[in-house]
Amino acid sequence: MLIILCLYIVAVWAIFSKFKLVRWGWASGSVAVLVGLLILATFLALFNYLTPSGRLTVTGRVVEVTPNVSGQITAIPVKPNVLLKSDEVLFQIDPAPFQHLFAMSDDELSLRIIGIESGVDQGDEVAGARQLKLRTTRGEIPLIVHAAETPGRAVLCISGAIGGFDGPAKLYARLGLELPALGITVVRLNYRMPNEFGECVLDTMAGLPAA
Hints:
alpha+beta; 5-stranded mixed β-sheet; 34% helix; elongated
């Protein structure tokens, strides 16, 4: 807008002063001012009409990334607003809590199944599920079994480090309703010691024969 005003003033100066094409007077001066105001009003109207207006909303997609094990984050190698590549490390977790697993003997890492018994505390479970305890040399592992009529195929459902029977958004309970009708038995396992990586791995391995 300032550039247009300057150009118009230069044009008026050239016409009336430089080349003296028109004699400056009351009438000619009034016309020059009115023409200038008309040009400014026209450009202001165009700017107001063409400029976007209304509420502006900024949207973005947020993807939650969680590790399979919990721990203290020691490093975040990635940089904000930088495109990630495949297999790129997002963050690093302190390895100290897991190093003792490598120093343990085979006996310390062993787990034997002693038997299976019923008696898991009743809860709000889907109909038809059997609640069992898998007795082992390291303690009892609670199970919920949704058995199919025809044995043969099975799936073992385990949660993240915090444990639990239901999984994300109670997915495992819904699978217990749907998969048995397709001939697939669903076994939902809860850890003896949630958040203990080594013990959770042993529980998962013990749950495979039960499935």
